[in-house]
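[Automated response] Your request has been received and processed.

Submitted sequence:
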Amino acid sequence: MKRRKELLEKHPYKIWRGKDEFWHTYLPNGNERKPIKKKEKKAIEEAVIEFYKNQEEIFIEDVFNSWVTQKYEYKEIQKQTYDRYKTDFIRFFKDSSLYKKDIRKITEEELEEFIRKTINDKQLSNKAYSGLRLLIIGIFKYAKKHKYTEISITNFFGDLELPKKCFSKKVVLDKDSVFTDMEVEKICSYIKENESLINYGILLTFQTGLRVGELCTLKYSDIHGNKLSVRRTEIRYKDENDNYIIEVRESPKTDAGNRDIILNSNAQKTLKEIRRLNPFGEFMFMRNGQRIKEKAFGNKITKICQYVGIKERSMHKARKTYATKLINGGVDESLIIKQMGHTSIDCTKNYYYFNNKTDEEAAMQIERAISY
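Generated structure:
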């Protein structure tokens, strides 16, 4: 509404209703003026607004900001997703040839060149490219809806052919992705000798595969016999002053994340130790009356790795270790999906399943398997 008002105030000619019952005004036409008329006042105002909009340059950043703000205001995305889209936009577009170009003048050839150059220059993986693609689709669908472009982005990507070899392939080593059985034993021994809420939280992650955002928002009311209900997670986003806000969201990361995890006997014992150390807190993990945040667990597992003399790994690697143990243990795939909060076993096997054997253990397995 503010923008509409600004554009109407910019109009130098009077808008009036004539004896013919039509609304009249003029539009600039070079050194002259062009008369127009409409039946409704709103219609002639829209014509004036559209005229001045078309005189201005509409940068791709303007369209992006309108699109992402609309999605956030309509609650189609959470604040942390909004922040991630903003960060990705700067990463992909800030120094590009399209950044300061009127979106109405961008051709399909220029858009394709931008995509190929960005993939090559920034050495994007297929996963990183999917983030770029998501932004382009959102921006150009919004632009087409508001008549800023004639490009049908759906057809554009349908015709776009990108060979697999153009994407950067990051080599992920098994030893960097999961903990070996021996390493887990070292961590467990350290935790049992150094009791603390944070340490027991790390142990619980190895025993349940919880996401760290789920872990740090657990309450005792989530325990139901041998099951643990996952119903919330920690979120982080920036406020209007660019300061980070950390909150508890009363829903998990994904719809599949809303689940009841089966606890084995060791996990149940760990929960009893947690309650012993913090019997009355609102959350299971609290320190000085405040909830222990996700970052604290990440920092602590790094220090534990250093102390026991193993390669530093994150809390997420503990979750991947749990998934690997379930698969190696022959647990039914339908149960693995439920425990992990995934939608399919393919997700678990493709991104969470790694060889957690030492070189010596792997060599022994091969020796036993190949007897000829």
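Summary generated for your ticket: The CA atoms of residues 192 and 275 lie 15 Å apart. The chain has a mean pLDDT of 94.
If you did not submit this request, please reply to this message.
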